Known about the structure:
The protein is of the alpha/beta class. It folds into two domains: 102 residues, Rossmann fold (3-Layer(aba) Sandwich); 73 residues, Rossmann fold. 35% of the residues lie in helices and 23% in strands. The chain contains six helices and eight strands. It has an eight-stranded mixed sheet with strand order 3-2-1-4-5-6-7-8, with helices on both faces. Helix 1 runs parallel beside helix 6 and helix 5 packs across helix 6. The longest helix has 24 residues.
Amino acid sequence: MSRTRVAILISGSGSNMVTLAKDMASPDHPGEVALVAANKDAPGLAKAEAMGLKTTLIPHKGRPKAEFEAALDEALRYAGAEVICLAGFMRVLSPEFVARWEGRILNIHPSLLPLFKGLDTHARALDSGMAVHGCTVHGVTAALDDGPIYGQAVVPVHPGDTPDTLAERLLPREHELYPAVLRRFLAGNTAPLPLL
């Protein structure tokens, strides 16, 4: 079986990266990790190296965005990547970069999109009085946290929740949703997957 080569982009701890990579280690998975790339010296890079994955560091600081994205694009293509998973990658990709990879970039966002695009999603959900919160795996487009929704998972909001407790409760659901959606996506199934 020919497997789709997947690049995972990170900026931090890489917890979703680890979950995706472990799932792709299964021989029946339609994808395999081609590269784990970071835009800064993130703890997730060491985790990826410890898992035996190919890694690269492409710093964004102090260089024009176009130059950073050209270097990133070159590394992805050199590694043979066909699909990109953003997993805590804290850089907004330009419309030009997104166009080059159109229909082949997935992201996980910590809210039930289209609610709470951007940052501080847990605090904003609490401030809005939401009874539930969740996460979304979506296709990346030129618009921030937009694009087709491929899956969502829901958690209850409890009295006394803080942004930290809500984030902690949501993380296991992210780890459940993202691998499930990626498997389906690589198999050609883009119907939204609801995990309630």
